[in-house]
Amino acid sequence: MSFLPDTALQDLKDLLGPKGFSMESDVLAAHNAEARGKFEGHAEIILFPASTEEVAKAVAICAAHNIAVVPQGGNTGRCGGAVADDKQVLINLKRMNRVIEIDARDFTATVEAGAILQNIQEAAEKQDLLFPLSLGAEGTCQIGGNLATNAGGLNVIRYGNARDLCLGLEVVLPDGSVWNGLSKLRKDNTGYDLRDLFIGAEGTLGIITKATLKLFAQPKHVATAWVAVPTPECALDLLALARRHTGDAIAAFELISKFAHDLSVTYLKGLTRPLATKTDWHVLIELTSSRPNDDLETLLVDLLGQAVEIGLASDATLAQSEAQRENLWAIREGIPEAQGFEGGSIKHDVSVPISKVPDLLKRGMAAADALIPGIRPCPFGHVGDGNIHFNFTQPATMDKERYLAEWQSLNSVIHDIVTELGGSISAEHGIGQLKRDELAHYASIEKLKLLRAIKDAIDPDGRLNPGKIV
What we know:
Mean pLDDT: 96
Number of strands: 19
Radius of gyration: 23 Å
Number of helices: 17
């Protein structure tokens, strides 16, 4: 191996043992592949440490030889943030997958970074507790990656992003030393908040190895409805009404366009249309409560009755069983998969102030059609927190490759509008390689200076996940 000195390679093998590394082509191929297919890794070696000590020593060995390392979790990212080249060592934490402790008094979970998100959810549920971070890849994504990208998901409106759900971290630094900030404290004003520095940093400042997470009371009641709304403006007015009417019971509030809805129910096996009513926009709303006597169904029926009466909704259906609830959620969560049946899609993970969502949709769809006539908008997402997955499917008569060649042009059009509306070009997927140059374009000079200063201070040699974010 040309880039890795024999002494370094032998030190890594001695440290990790035969289960702790691989140079096999089939193993590397799986970890060099990128979820969206826009980037391809070329790592020639991948490490699978089994403990924080092994991560720290492996990083120290690489640092001694000035070799860059790229941390990787479940490899479900959307922005090329866990892709290594042929002169970088890939470090995957899947062997560090323990749920170390569920503390029912502190309402915390202490976990290793390689723990699968769904496994954390299930461990909490066994103690009648809830870890509310929930996203489509939860069966394969690792919590370290979720924290490294400050993942959002379906329940942000009530519980916040990954950053809001984390109390403490353990992190391996670029020289192989370990910062132990694995705290359960809810209040700690002793200097700069180092935890938040590493959350969302995509492994460019340190490798998260453990985390202490917030847990909540397990919901005892759930009420879910699919609602036909005339316009995005009506969806926002419905959200405001729901907040006033239900207090803190709203767990999710999703906006789905007609095109996105139709793709799911047309192409995904076993899904049924929730409503006979034809509408350009749909809302999926879910209420939850941990209070045993709450009657959420009555609360939701009353809310929807008011909405129909004042013209915010034209029709609605309430899930009467878990199977019906699962059907509603499968329509929403299946949209990205269903889009593939109609050809190429160009995707945007953006956020704007909630009140600006209708402006984003109206201006964005008009600008996209002016750029590529016949383009088919497929917007959907977490309107309750202003995060819209503003996807666009290729025109029915356009060649896929010619359409995908317009990716950067369409990005620029949409991101210009997002910026003008006071929004963000990355709501929950991170920056990685995909949006690195766009961050440099849209961010203020002051922000870029601070980002670079932080990177240079903690990783002056640029050995941790180089080429990502800055």
